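2024-03-11 09:14:02 DEBUG pipeline.ingest accepted 1 chain
2024-03-11 09:14:02 DEBUG pipeline.ingest length=548
2024-03-11 09:14:03 DEBUG pipeline.predict start
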Amino acid sequence: MSQTADPRPGLSDSDDGEVPAGGLNILLVDDIQENLELLQDVLAENNYTSVLARNGVEALAKLRHERVHLIVADAMMPKMDGFQLCKEVRTLPGCAAVPFIIYTGNYIDETDQRLARSIGVDRYVVKYAGLGALVDAVNELVQQRYGVRAVQPVAAAEQIDEHAFLEQHRAIVIRKLEEKMAELEMYADTLVRKNREIQASEERYRALFDHASIAIFVTDHESGRILDANRQALALLGYRKEELLEMPALPFGGEPGAQKSAVPLYASGETTIRTKSGEAIQVDVVVGPVTRPQDPRVMLFVRDVTEKKKMQAQLLQAEKLTLMGRLAAGIAHEIRNPLAAVTLNLQYLVGKLGAEGDLRQTLDDMLEGARRIETVIGNTLNLARVAPPVLELNQLNGLIDQVLRYVKIALQQKRITIEARLDRNIPSVSADARQIQQVMINVLQNAIDASPEGSMLTVTTGIAVEVRTDVTPGTIRKAVVEIRDRGAGIPPDHVKQIFESFRTTKAGGTGLGLALSKFIMDRHNAEIRIEPAVGGGTIVKLVFPIQG
């Protein structure tokens, strides 16, 4: 028999009976390095060379590059065990006829051996049978496969007996087990310590998160879905946490019930958000990642700035009043004195001309214009220099009776009638009579100007019971004066700015009457409300707190 070497990996069927000059090469497959080294030493003592692999996947890679004459594989291995490896080998060109031995200490049942034989395993050797049984199986398969005895008997002194192998193997296993146990104990201690640190950190984070004085939402950056929310967040929107977690996104902007994706809003700034009740509130949003930049979660720090905006508007209004106070002094000095002279001269001319003639009508128009200028100056001065109210108990019905006498001429000029529905049991309120009468005159004059000729104004007094909006639950009683006209009403887009200075829709109006009225009512801790009336027209309500 010739002993030529085949340069190709594995053996083809045509290699049957050929033993290479360099000896037989055996592929050893085991996931335990110590087992591989021990098997390699034993087979080397029997004149075999070995190729080592830690699992079935690695073994298949070796077969692509190594010439192998026999395979010994453990049954239990990660990634690919011995059974799977045998099945794969039997399908590889050039390797299908390579003898295959499973050497195992776990799969020892008869059913396991039958499975091995069914997939093409040539020998099934259990580890407790000893290394001698494995060497015998190798020699037997080599002789059957190649037709010759591939190894020479080894001197008895060079052979390792079973007892020595077991002792060596036990020592190796025990040493490795002790090392692994020590590593596991160190790892367990480290794991326990890290777990405590993580738990403490989580508790600190949760406490800070839940008790923060600002609303915090944790959301998914991609979908906008809410993942967590603290107590302030729940209080801000009025939802239970379960309801928030079921929502597809935070309800930024939009109509009541609408929910926009939060993704476009992941930039710090001011926006609006809707509460569970449908109220739109202004909020300031600051965005930041939860932990790492690649984490898909983001934190939204949301602060309600509705009151802040109201304060800013009030400050702006106060600045306007201050500015008007400065302007008023200049106006009084520069215009009032020459205007008085003009008015006196016009009155003198009217007296000289008598009651007839076109020139008299012209002079009357000029006097009316002068009076309008005087009214503008007076309103400006009043708005800038309203004295602090002198509060006394006053009957609203009595104040209304006096005011109606003041506007009697204006009512007669437009043939407007007054329907008074005064509740005689309404209690007195704490108010400055002169200032409240000024408010009533302003409101009534606006109602007269807005009403068509021959129409009716309704003046009503009564008591309203309202739910408290502060922290104390219950109701509160208030005295209400209601004045309704039958005019065209106020456009909705004008209602929000109606109390701002110099805003007016009346021809010849100054835009100061309602601004002055609101200023006075605020100083009385009272309210002035404007709303459309059912059937047309406008309702103005003056709402006063009732003492006691």
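2024-03-11 09:14:41 DEBUG pipeline.report The chain has four domains: 13-160, 212-304, 316-384, 392-545.
2024-03-11 09:14:41 DEBUG pipeline.predict end
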